Amino acid sequence: MTRSDLVAQLAERFAHLTQRDAEFAVKTMLDAMSDALARGHRIEIRGFGSFSISRRPPRVGRNPRSGEQVTIPEKLVPHFKPGKALRETINQ
């Protein structure tokens, strides 16, 4: 499902919402989630899952063309852990 699919489904399901209102709601929610993760907060949506930030330590890698060693710096990456209800729904 893409973002535009989600907007279309929301507009369909809730007749009082226009396409523009549904798009604004989805954008606002995703922006709020992105901002919270950028500030280092954890997001938990009961029955769906939780989003958090994981740290990838620095490491030494190799350039595939030349074979020389390259230092890869530390990274912060988003991590999603599905909730129990979501896992059960998918496994049915």
Largest sheet, in brief, is: 3 strands, antiparallel
Beta content: 25-35%
Strand segment count:
5
Quaternary arrangement of the chains shown? single chain
Computed structural class: alpha+beta
The CATH topology of the largest domain comes to HU Protein, Chain A
Residue share in helices? Answer: 40-55%
Ranges where pLDDT stays below 50 over 5 or more residues in a row are none
CATH superfamily of the largest domain: IHF-like DNA-binding proteins
Largest sheet, order of strands side by side?
Answer: 1-2-5
CATH architecture label name of the largest domain: Irregular
SSE string, helices as H and strands as E: HHEEEEEH
Taking all Cα atoms into account, the compactness measure Rg is: 19 Å
Mean pLDDT: 95
Describe the structure using short key phrases.
two-stranded antiparallel sheet, 2 domains, 92 residues, three-stranded antiparallel β-sheet, 29% strand, HU Protein, Chain A, alpha+beta, elongated
Description:
The protein has 92 residues and is of the alpha+beta class. It folds into two domains: 1-39; 42-92, Irregular (HU Protein, Chain A), CATH 4.10.520. Helices cover 42% and strands 29% of the residues. Strand 1 and strand 2 form a beta hairpin. Helix 1 crosses helix 2 (19-38). The model has no long low-confidence stretch (mean pLDDT 95).
Topology (SSEs and partners):
Elements: H1 3-13, H2 19-38, E1 43-45, E2 49-56, E3 59-62, E4 69-72, E5 75-82, H3 84-91
Antiparallel strand pairs: 1-2, 2-5, 3-4
